[in-house]
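Hi there. Long-time user, first ticket. I'm pasting a complex I've been working with (about 1480 residues overall). I'd like to know whether the download I got is complete or cut off, because the file seemed smaller than I expected. Thanks.
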Amino acid sequence: MPKREDIKKILIIGSGPIIIGQACEFDYSGTQACKALKEEGYEVILINSNPATIMTDPEMADRTYIEPISVDFLEKIIEKEKPDACLPTMGGQTGLNVAVEAYEKGVFTKHGVELIGARYEAIKKAENRQLFKKAMEKIGLDLPRSGFAHTVEEAFKLAGEIGYPIVVRPSFTLGGSGSGICFNRDELEYRARLGLEYSTIHEILIEESVLGWKEFELEVMRDIKDNYIVICSIENFDPMGIHTGDSITVAPAQTLTDKEYQRMRDAGRKVISEIGVETGGSNIQFAIHPETGRMVVIEMNPRVSRSSALASKATGFPIAKFAAKLAVGYTLDEIPNDITKYTPASFEPTIDYCVVKIPRFAFEKFEGVDDTLTTQMKSVGEVMSIGRTFKEAIQKGLRSLEIKRFGLGGDGKDKVFEETLETKEKLVEWIRSSPSRVGLREKIIHYITVPKQDRLFYIKYAYYAGLLTEEIYRATKIDPWFLEQIKQIVDLEKELLKKGAEGGRELLKKAKQYGFSDRQLAFYWEIKENQVRALRKKRGIEAVFKLVDTCAAEFRAYTPYFYSTYEDEDETIPSQKKKVMILGGGPNRIGQGIEFDYCCVQAVFALKELGYETIMVNSNPETVSTDYDTADKLFFEPLTLEDVLNIYEREKPIGVIIQLGGQTPLNLAKRLEREGIPILGTSAESIDVAEDREKFKLLLQKIGLNQPKNGIAFNLDEATGVARTIGYPVVTRPSYVLGGRAMEIVYDESFLRKYISQAVEASEEHPVLIDQFLEDAMEIDVDLIGDGKTFVVGGVLEHIEEAGIHSGDSAMVLPPFSLKKELVDELILKTKQLAQELEVVGLMNVQYAIQKGVIYCLEVNPRASRTIPFVSKAIGIPLARLAAKAMAGKSLKELGFIQERWPRHVSIKESVFPFIKFPGVDIILSPEMRSTGEVMGIDEELGRAFYKAQEAAWSKLPLGGKVFISVKEEDKPKVIPIAQKLSELGFLLVATKGTAEFLRRSGVKTEIVLKLAEGRPNISDLIRNNKIQLVINTPSGKGPMLDEAKIRSLAVSFNVPCITTINAARVAASGIESATKGNLEVKTIQDYHRGLCTTKL
Amino acid sequence: MGFSKGLAPVKALLALEDGSVLEGEGFGSEGETYGELVFNTSLSGYQEILTDPSYKGQIVIMTNPHIGNYGVNADDEEAQHPWVEGFVVRELSPVVSNFRSDMSLDQYLKKHKIVGIQGVDTRKLTKHLRDHGAKRAAISTVELDSKRLVKKVKDSPEMAGADWVKAVTCKEPYDFDETLLHGYEWPEKLGPKPKQYFAVCIDGGIKKMILRKLNQHGFRVKVVPAHTKAEEILSYKPDGVFLSNGPGDPAAVTYLIDTTRKLIGKVPIFGICLGHQILGLALGGKTYKLKFGHRGGNHPVMDLFTKKIEVTSQNHGFAVDIESLPKNEIELTHINLNDKTLEGMRHKNHPVFSVQYHPENSPGPHDSDYLFERFYAMVSHHA
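Hi, the file is complete. Here it is re-exported in full:
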């Protein structure tokens, strides 16, 4: 069927900020959808609050709204744009939820907008557990048996019918609280009572437990003619009980016979048909009992998902792009397969390699968090790796994770409980002695029974300790097929350790085929990594690159999408064109996210415009950069020296861009240069100046910039000495950090002692840096672009929060809202001087603090910063794109950007945090970055922009109700005007005794509420009963105070916006004021950019 | 679930008639074997492939690198024993993990004396066959001299022009009555129908699943050898005749073409794969050898009446030439969307239809089951 002509204008809903469970994959799908629909001649309207996305680039959609993704704003956009249709399946759960809500409020019907991709009824049927259950029963598919109970007796009765173990799930609670697994009657009695109490409607679901069953996923598509295809089957390494987002997963499914697989495929067809997804893709999850083969349906997502992004990258079949085309009426046979060109998309990809996805966690950022892996997703990112075998893929995946590992151990980083095996000698000794160690086997079994992020490594140790596959299987329920693969790696490691470098060509080749890195081999053989490389080459063992082609080589492929392996034939055909290699950012983690992928993709666009062939290297399957459509050639590879060199040597680009992918490629700078690889843009030497403490100090002195007093300590005594010299408070951090890891503000010596001994373990190799902490200072970020001679500041961003809070977590305003013009001029001047000194070619970010009118330089990063996409969107200049062109030799003059631009509108970048997923963790902002994503609020005026930013960050400010105020002593005078304003705006103020009395004395009417320890009802009860609409609580500063931390955490759980700094409270009050006064308007980014900038501040 | 030890490596060579030689590790039986080297792109279903008689005379490469993961079980056999001449995989699983498994693939191949080789670059081989066409080849664990092995391959028989049907067809007629594996029936709503009609299946190398599907769809089934005369077949008074799949060059099976010609117009006929090619030849068309054939479970086929797409299971090296068919008598019903080759046809005047692909699948998707219903409907119409 040809495309629909009755619709002309389509609204796409994006997924908003990056949060746990919703990452770059929806930029990938949304970008594909925008491109696909525009290609078909539709006018595309987009709403997405996340500026760090490619999809919100002004040329992706026709009209782009960077506005909060809420029904209100959606309706405003619909009123203005009058689209014919809305595609809600590209923006994850966020997009789907807002579409459902808008539908239920009649927004679409009222404005005559048709939902395409998935109808409302289909979405409801898939999302509502009851409706889904009914639908599955109707088509005869098996589900975990379950029933609802309203009394403990009913629960017993149901459990009797279903059989233990059973899961208790209270109906209507927040964040799945109160649910749990019961193995016997006693546990059920306890859980049932608790659950009934938790449930707001006193109802619990008693469900058969499928814990430990084998878990599978199918990515399926269906078109308007009922054609049905399965794009990919995925088998989870980790069995049921761990969220699939937190599981290691493998494609294709490995342990199903064809009969079993086809049964699942048939079930998939029935599910998508019964749910009623007529045009698009869905993800369906199944569980299979390992001993009986019983198959149950777990759930389905009637939209593109993280798994569909993975499946697209794993097979070369672009699910989102085709889903968009199906949504406008095409059928699968009418769409050509991108890769083979001459065959249609109405087939099922088949693959001749193994794909492994490994989640990336960030528990170290959240003190006190429960790091057990459960059915609630906790990972912040993922990597994908491709190998010809599982063994090769899993080891490549582990070295892609950016956890400083180079495979499945054997890299000097093995740590078995308290024992570190950093030398070969220690590893060999440990392997020798482990089977005979008393209690070790039991300890390991005990450890691997509870799934944690490092379980894979402990499976390895389990084998060394003499445990059998059967025993490990019983403890973990990980399929023996996977375990035996691990065992093969372990066995080969033993052989590698035993035989040494002289083990022969065959052994070396086998090791490479098993995915061992040169770093691991260097460790086993006690030689240098480059010696292993030389040895390998001498023996003729080099990586070859194979194609991802959707068809296992049956047809010729035209899309150069490669992975490396160690076999006979290499399929790359290096062209004679001038080429540039761009290194991506690897997995999302806190401190390194979608912003860097955005920059890398911009570089690809830029260099293509200049006629270069672009080569992209990355390991993150969620991204736009790893869309084979983006760069001319895609290498899906780990970003380690070895892997990058392999590609370099094969392709011989004129240079490598390392400054756009964040810390990951930057860390390779020196080593790449040492290998003689030209680095485009700012030199490795300059990067070193910025990162080396002493050289940096000299640089600042030369320019005449102040630096907070600082020192370095190699042990505890030195640390206390340095701190005393500087004077408390100080900021401490380990020497090499990403995203402020383990950074802390320390107010006194006792805390410093604790920090040094517990948190960082200062050593000769890893000293601790100690800086003067600038109290009550404001913080500024400046982003600059340069061509080596000319330098232009892209943006001066004033933080709302004071210095001391990680810049990745602060809200920022562009242009500055309170800085004096002279100071701004001074910052620009100094930044340009720094750039001049460092001969910046490309991007540079500088962080400043201003205390009592004095400028201090905190940090210089001669690379793309997290704020580049935000600044680019605020000023309407694609900085990363220009930077890439500068790196390729263009001058800024040639590029037409030689003057600063100051937008007349106000742009605010606000951070989004994962606290809701980590109950009990204190939410206060600190030097340790903990946000996962960002949103942008734009408006003509600061208050309104802030209000929008808050709403976009899922923290909508109230326009009335009760505000709970509790601030530290120093903040009390400062909170008075804020309290007054809120009071004038009609809010009722509530505070604990101290603050309340202070406010009352200042003439602000305030109610008193009890502290947690003072009896009941207290503040906790008010929050729980939805009596509080806003919390303003600044931490008292000396370590986590239990009471206030609890209140903040509680506010997050109950979705009450919680402001933790005075500055933010001040802006919030004015935001509320603006929002109360007038209606918030929506405006496209294209309109903002159109002639709304000036060259003067 | 079995936990086997690692295999003691046995060196093996895979040699092609064009002189290419790859070294790998032997598995299954030791020895030497010859055949036409072909590749199959199915991700699952190696056991069904091994036991499909259509692979007689062929050495099969699986493009999926991990093979043997779920072992072998008695229920998934398409014949009593494997028919492939040899088996080529990237990596044989060291362990079997499946609740239905009876033994490991290695044990199974040893038991049936099939030579296998692993550890070779199967993707390179596949590309080679794609670009240069199917090749005669040998796997050997005994002749480890490359040149001598290549020479032996060159002296081995060609696939084109060879009648392999006589090697796989049954010796005596037999009745067949089996249900589908419980728990894995499809379509699910269709239990076994009362066996209202009687089909005689001419065995050119028939897969068990076809017989099971005929049973399920309401046929009593008798299987007869390929050389059975038309008169004898008609003497059984069948309601319909089924022409089965099978190995080799259809044009070489002249006796079966003659038989078929005599049956057309006398009894409803349904043909699959080789049966489809035989019908084409019997109706005056021609067949030709495809460069590297269709073997896999993912080929898109369009039903030209409904315009719907089926993802199909395929296994054939020859095809019916569309241009050679008499247009006044034959209507094309199905077409392969990848290369536009003929996938199905029907006679305009007689109750005769056929498909090139495998609606019984096994292995492969269940999209094309309706063809058995179509056969049932055709038979009931003429009964």
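A couple of notes from our side: The longest strand of chain B covers residues 287-303. The longest helix of chain B spans residues 370-382.
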